[in-house]
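User: Predict the structure for this protein chain, please.
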Amino acid sequence: TPLKMSAAGDETKPICIVVEAEIKEDRMEEFLDLIEKDAVGSRAEPGCLRFDVLRSKDNPNKFFFYEAYVDADAIAFHKDQPHFALWTKFKETEGIVSSVSHKTDGWFMS
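Assistant: Here is the predicted structure, written as C-alpha cells:
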C-alpha cells in the first residue's frame, strides 16, 4: 500500500473515490470514447494510484469508476485536467441518467 508519512510521522491513507453512473443509452458510444480517454489520462497523473472503469452485469448502462489518489492535492490536480473535463461536460450535456460519487479513505489496498 503506498502510504506517506505526515509531518507528525503518522501514516496517511490514500483517498479513493467510487462513482456510480448510469449512462443514457443513446449516448453510450460517446461515453465509452471519453471514459477511455479519462482513464488513460488519469492513470498518467503523478498522484493517481488507480483508475478503473467497471460495467455492471445487471445493467449495461451502469458503470462504476474506482479511483485512488495519494492525497487531496492529487484529486485537485486531477479535476484540473482536460481528460476530466470531458466527463464534466458529458454530465452537463445530460449524457447521464444519474451519477453518485463516494469519497473514502483507502484501508486495505493492494
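Residues 4-10 have pLDDT under 50 and may be disordered.
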